[in-house]
Write a structure and sequence with these properties.
Blueprint: E1 5-6, E2 10-17, E3 20-30, E4 37-44, E5 57-60, E6 69-73, H1 76-84, E7 94-100, E8 104-111, E9 114-121
Antiparallel strand pairs: 1-2, 2-3, 3-4, 4-5, 6-7, 7-8, 8-9
Length: 147
């Protein structure tokens, strides 16, 4: 995993597993009203850049969390997706992200009778990996809108 892009409102964190570059975590700050908080979406793509059938699931923080940890219970879109694809237990998912700057990044999924936790070492810098599927490389320019 690495932080590929970071703006005032959105952070994109691709997760590569060997040659599989299909996963990106997208964190978006939502302002005001009932939607306020931080939204986590799992963007899953095929090698040609098209979205996987199981993509854009996640949740939104319901509490302020802390500067180092946030939790994201499954949102309505995710619950409907999990029901549609026959994974109703995943509707109970809560995803968590935690960071100890310069030490580790933690990603976890919990639900009743399940707890999966991945820890990533942040103590060593790495070279930037290739872009995730569906994202232009740094050398490629994104398509410009036609005028």
């Amino acid at each position: 995993m690495h932080v590929r892009s970071c703006t005032a409102d959105t952070i994109k964190i691709p997760l590569h597993v060997e040659d599989d570059r299909s996963r990106t975590w997208v964190l978006t700050r939502k302002a005001g009203g009932a939607e306020a908080g931080i939204e986590l979406k799992h963007d899953h793509r095929h090698a040609d850049g098209t979205e996987d059938e199981v993509t854009q699931y996640g949740g939104r923080t319901l509490t302020p969390g802390t500067a180092n940890r946030q939790e994201f219970p499954a949102d309505a879109f995710s619950k409907a997706l999990f029901e549609r694809i026959g994974r109703p237990n995943s509707s109970l998912n809560t995803w968590g992200m935690e960071v100890e700057p310069g030490k580790r990044f933690i990603y976890e999924v919990t639900r009743p009778n399940r707890h999966v936790r991945f820890e990533f070492d942040l103590s060593q810098k790495i070279s930037a990996p290739p872009p995730p599927w569906g994202t232009p490389s740094v050398d490629q320019k994104a398509p410009q809108p036609s005028r």
